[in-house]
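Tokens as discussed.
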């Protein structure tokens, strides 16, 4: 019995010793590489250094597994999507550590389906850390594409063209620009990206060395810092799209620093001059003497010298109207265009749909001339516009404009003589009705010499900014008096207005009003406010009421059966003045209604509302 217990205890002791050894192995495993003289390979970070034991145990996975698919083929298995993405990113960076190499790959991640993916993952086990990194890195070798080449893609809105090298690209743009840069004063340059993590550059234009800077930056805009855009640009022939600085940039920085020093010196000189002026004032100098000490600051002749003159006329800027970006890329060789083909593509004009807004003075022929079209073409694009009578101010017309991918923006200073008119001067007159006008003084044209900065897109004018004006013969403004008094309104004197006889000549005599057929006793109301001047029998009118409205206009109501107002009474518009009837020269019950202006009868119909 004792012998049996001894053997059982011995076996149990060996089991405990083995278990203890496994625990110790797990604890010392992280340093096992150092103990056995092995070295971990360098990976992205310390967390990727392999623990051989943990790696072996980690390969036994009972949870979900993520498959890394490269171009639709399983490349490796990972424990999670996060681990797969991190390992792929590290492998991609390591692959390009010795220079950018082309990889034509598309990577996707998805959970392994035990049934559907059984064949795809057969013999594969879950990897982590360095082993996962190495498996992905090794798979890249099968996707290197030697059929692609380094090239430069120029992007203009949604249009792109690709050329073989940066010198050709710059040459193409300079050729497009040279048509307008006749004095060869500007150069095309590449502005470096704001971030070193991108290889996209923007095309800019700057004055060439030795040319006077006009303070314009890219696209002709004023440089906020007052420096030429050349300072912030890189000469295209001296730089690749790597984001690395060159000696020329260093020189530019030095120039900038020296410029800052000059500015500081100027500020010091200005402050010293101001101090001298203050001292002069303390010594009893008058304000006039101080002004004289300021020199040319308030000198009119100096201001005149600063005005633009005809001698300064000419091209001030030649650039590109659209933003042009350049991207370094790897493409198939058949996608790269030669220099002549690329130039032809970006400068060929094709018809593009556009909208034209009709301006005052426009007609079909003028609109056609403005847009290099024919009148028939405009009619074809706008079926509702077949003549000038169909045109209205602010109408939108469909047109087609010949447009190239690259459009040149040109700014020119131009000096010219032209005739001009002063704006019409209006004088309000409350004695005249609204809509009535009277010319008080006739205007006359003048002539002046204008200096303007004109902006063109290709050959089409976009904007004209007047810089200076010298009047030779002053224009005289036309003066027009216009009425501000509201026109009076006239209401129908009876309801159920049924005209039986209109205003006009009948049988050789004038029928001076309108006859309205109404039953005897119908209420007759004042068509307009005024004072009653007649209320009684008036010859052929029978019983008649006449109302004076105070501005030379009277209304007359005839053939009344009863008068309900009296002479001298003031009545408002719509007040009852009588009842209709059949008195006087009348052939039946009706109202005879007249409007007389300055004693002359006029047709009442246009006055009634």
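Sequence:
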């Amino acid at each position: 019995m004792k012998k049996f217990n001894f053997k059982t205890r011995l076996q149990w002791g060996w089991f405990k010793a083995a278990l203890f050894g496994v625990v110790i192995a797990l604890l010392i495993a992280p340093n096992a590489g150092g103990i056995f003289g092995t070295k971990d390979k360098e990976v992205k970070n310390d967390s990727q250094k392999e623990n051989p034991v943990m790696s072996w145990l980690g390969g036994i996975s009972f949870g979900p597994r993520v498959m890394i698919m490269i171009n639709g083929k399983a490349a490796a298995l990972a424990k999670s999507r996060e681990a797969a993405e991190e390992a792929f990113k590290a492998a991609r960076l390591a692959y390009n550590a010795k220079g950018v190499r082309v990889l034509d790959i598309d990577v996707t991640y998805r959970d392994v389906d035990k049934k559907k993916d059984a064949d795809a993952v057969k013999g594969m086990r879950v990897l982590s850390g360095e082993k996962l990194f190495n498996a992905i890195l090794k798979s890249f070798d099968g996707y290197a594409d030697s059929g692609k080449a380094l090239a430069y893609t120029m992007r203009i809105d949604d249009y792109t063209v690709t050329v073989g090298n940066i010198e050709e690209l710059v040459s193409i743009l300079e050729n497009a620009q040279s048509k307008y840069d006749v004095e060869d004063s500007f150069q095309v340059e590449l502005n470096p990206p704001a971030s070193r993590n991108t290889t996209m550059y923007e095309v800019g234009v700057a004055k060439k060395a030795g040319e006077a800077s006009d303070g314009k930056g890219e696209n002709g805009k004023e440089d906020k810092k007052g420096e030429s855009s050349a300072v912030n640009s890189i000469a295209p022939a001296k730089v690749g799209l790597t984001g690395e600085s060159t000696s020329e940039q260093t020189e530019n920085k030095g120039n900038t620093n020296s410029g800052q020093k000059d500015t500081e010196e100027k500020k010091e000189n200005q402050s010293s001059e101001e101090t001298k002026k203050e001292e002069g004032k303390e010594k009893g100098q008058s304000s006039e003497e101080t002004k004289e000490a300021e020199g040319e600051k308030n000198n009119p002749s100096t201001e005149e010298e600063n005005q633009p003159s005809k001698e300064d006329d000419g091209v001030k800027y030649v650039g590109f109207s659209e933003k042009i970006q350049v991207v370094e890329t790897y493409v198939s060789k058949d996608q790269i265009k030669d220099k002549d083909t690329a130039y032809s593509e970006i400068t060929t004009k094709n018809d593009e749909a556009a909208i034209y807004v009709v301006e005052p003075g426009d007609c079909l022929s003028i609109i056609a001339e403005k847009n290099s079209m024919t009148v028939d073409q405009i009619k074809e694009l706008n079926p509702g516009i077949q003549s000038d009578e169909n045109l209205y101010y602010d109408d939108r017309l469909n047109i087609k404009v010949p447009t190239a991918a690259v459009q040149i923006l040109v700014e020119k200073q131009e000096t010219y003589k032209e005739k001009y008119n002063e704006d019409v001067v209006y004088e309000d007159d409350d004695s005249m009705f609204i809509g009535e006008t009277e010319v008080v003084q006739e205007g006359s044209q003048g002539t002046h010499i204008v200096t303007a900065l004109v902006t063109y897109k290709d050959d089409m004018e976009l904007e004209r900014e007047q810089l200076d004006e010298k009047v030779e013969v002053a224009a005289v403004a036309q003066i027009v008096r216009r009425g501000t008094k509201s026109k009076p309104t006239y209401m129908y004197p009876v309801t159920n207005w049924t005209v039986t006889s209109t205003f006009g000549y009948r049988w050789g005599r004038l029928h001076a009003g309108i006859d309205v057929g109404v039953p005897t006793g119908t209420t007759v109301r004042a068509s307009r406010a005024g004072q009653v001047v007649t209320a009684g029998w008036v010859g052929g009118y029978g019983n008649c009421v006449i109302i004076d409205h105070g501005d030379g206009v009277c209304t007359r109501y005839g053939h009344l059966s009863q008068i309900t107002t009296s002479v001298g009474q003031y009545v408002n518009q719509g007040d009852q003045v009588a009842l209709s009837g059949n008195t006087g020269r009348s052939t039946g019950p009706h109202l005879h209604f007249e409007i007389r202006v300055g004693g002359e009868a006029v047709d009442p119909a246009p006055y009634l509302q």
